[in-house]
């Protein structure tokens, strides 16, 4: 979706003060482009909405772990939510203080847990009782303690697409209420663990605040007898507008719904998508058009290898030309070059007539975009370009991969 940073001026698409075409002329396509200004504005909006709750924002690096973005968010005051040793490594490299890092994940390896304990990161969110034993051993070997939140699976149905819902009982995530009570009753078995928090994350791109409220109410009932639990981490899930007709709750709606419940707790929040999705886009070139079986296809140089969300979740991304001009519209399938039928970016989409050489942007692609890119079909991954906070300068924040990069780890 277009917004204050990604917008048209005189029919040309801009990222802040830079015409996107200017960047393409120097960097080529496919290309990821992010407005750091927009990302920080989104961060400020969430931080300010949750200020009344004393909420602290830990940006969820899984959405986009580009170092330039992490650095900008850390400088603006965000902590980082990580799901692997690699993300912790990047968060530390970006200057995040270890105590401002939370580490979650359903399958943390012993090596990653050791790395987290060694670096004394702020919180480890446990999703399995066996993790308690592993962390207890790692911490006691080093004469340390570790601060722990237990991830609760509250068995609620989030209003989102099924593939990104995480808070129902059939999902692999979190611990049941019984498992949490069992761990808390047996805390003495884990003397190095300071179990002081509870974590919930019921899904991403939440369509309303209802399931979050239900999850929070259930959490409060669960932890009421355990007075050492003073921190509630409510996870991510604040949605982003991918289509203009969507009516979605904003950060303030979540904060005000939660205010009556969480006022006496320390609150952590882990937004990912809502910070970077609408600050990013993918720029692609039209390679060919063709018509058969009653369908017209527009073939881009960009596909599921660069932006996997349409193939993975049938996700919708608006597609717009870099230069708007008067003319015909036509209904087309926009597809990528990868040898998979699922490599389709838009089906039966009404777009301005496109010809080979035209440039288009896939909007709202900053989250779960580049981080899911692959080199399938031996396609080097695209560069990531950022427009800096001043809105005036741009730079390649991650260079385009080369064929040599493709073979760098092979012998
Ligand atoms: C535990 C956890 N926290 C935070 C997030 C970020 O969610 P979102 O990008 O919807 O804000 C996720 C994403 O799925 C997650 O699993």
Q: Please tell me what the overall shape is.
A: globular
Query: How many distinct folded domains?
Result: 2
- Say which CATH homologous superfamily of the largest domain is assigned: Alanine racemase
Strand content: 15-25%
Structural class: alpha/beta
Q: State Rg.
A: 22 Å
What's the architecture of the largest domain in CATH terms? Alpha-Beta Barrel
Average pLDDT for all residues: 96
For the sheet with most strands, the description reads:
9 strands, mixed
Task: Characterise the protein shown here.
This protein has 411 residues and is α/β, with parallel strands linked by helices. The protein folds into two domains: 6-35 and 277-407, Lyase, Ornithine Decarboxylase, Chain A, domain 1, CATH 2.40.37.10; 37-276, Alanine racemase (TIM Barrel). The protein is 27% helix and 25% strand. The strands form three sheets. Strands 4, 13, 14, 15, 16, 17, 18, 19 and 20 form a nine-stranded mixed β-sheet that branches. The longest helix is centred in the N-terminal third of the chain and has 14 residues, at 36-49. The protein is globular. The model has no long low-confidence stretch (mean pLDDT 96). Residues 60, 62-63, 81, 104, 201, 204-205, 235-238, 270-274 line the site of pyridoxal-5'-phosphate (PLP).
């Amino acid at each position: 979706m277009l917004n204050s940073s990604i917008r048209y001026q005189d029919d040309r698409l801009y990222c802040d003060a830079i015409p996107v075409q200017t960047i393409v002329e120097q960097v080529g396509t496919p290309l990821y482009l992010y407005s750091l200004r927009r990302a920080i504005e989104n961060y400020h909006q969430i931080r300010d909405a949750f200020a009344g709750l004393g909420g602290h924002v830990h940006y969820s690096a899984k959405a986009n772990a580009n170092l330039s973005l992490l650095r900008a968010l850390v400088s603006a005051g965000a902590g980082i939510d990580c799901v692997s040793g690699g993300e912790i490594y990047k968060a530390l490299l970006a200057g995040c203080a270890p105590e401002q890092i939370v580490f979650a994940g359903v399958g943390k390896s012993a090596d990653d847990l050791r790395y987290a304990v060694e670096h004394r990161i702020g919180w480890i969110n446990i999703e399995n009782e066996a993790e308690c034993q592993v962390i207890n051993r790692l911490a006691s070997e080093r004469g340390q303690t570790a601060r722990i939140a237990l991830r609760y699976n509250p068995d609620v149905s989030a209003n989102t697409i099924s593939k990104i819902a995480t808070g129902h009982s059939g999902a692999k995530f979190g611990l049941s209420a019984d498992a949490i009570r069992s761990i808390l009753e047996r805390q003495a078995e884990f003397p190095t663990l300071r179990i002081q928090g509870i974590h919930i994350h019921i899904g991403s791109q939440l369509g309303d605040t209802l399931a979050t409220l239900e999850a929070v109410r259930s959490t409060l009932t669960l932890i009421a007898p355990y007075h050492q639990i003073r921190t509630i981490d409510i996870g991510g899930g604040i949605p982003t507008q991918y289509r203009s007709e969507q009516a979605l709750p904003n950060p303030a709606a979540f904060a005000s719904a939660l205010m009556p419940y969480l006022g006496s707790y320390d609150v952590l929040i882990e937004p990912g998508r809502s910070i970077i999705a609408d600050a990013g886009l993918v720029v692609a070139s039209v390679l060919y058009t063709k018509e058969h079986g009653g369908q017209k296809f527009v073939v881009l140089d960009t596909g599921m290898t660069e932006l996997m969300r349409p193939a993975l979740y049938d996700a919708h991304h608006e597609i717009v030309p870099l230069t708007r001009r008067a003319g015909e519209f036509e209904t087309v399938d926009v597809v990528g070059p990868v040898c998979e039928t699922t490599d389709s970016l838009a089906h039966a989409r009404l777009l301005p007539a496109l010809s080979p050489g035209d440039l288009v942007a896939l909007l709202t692609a900053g989250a779960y975009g580049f981080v899911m890119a692959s080199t399938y079909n031996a396609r080097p991954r695209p560069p990531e370009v950022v427009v800096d906070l001043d809105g005036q300068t741009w730079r390649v924040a991650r260079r385009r991969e080369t064929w040599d990069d493709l073979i760098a780890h092979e012998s």
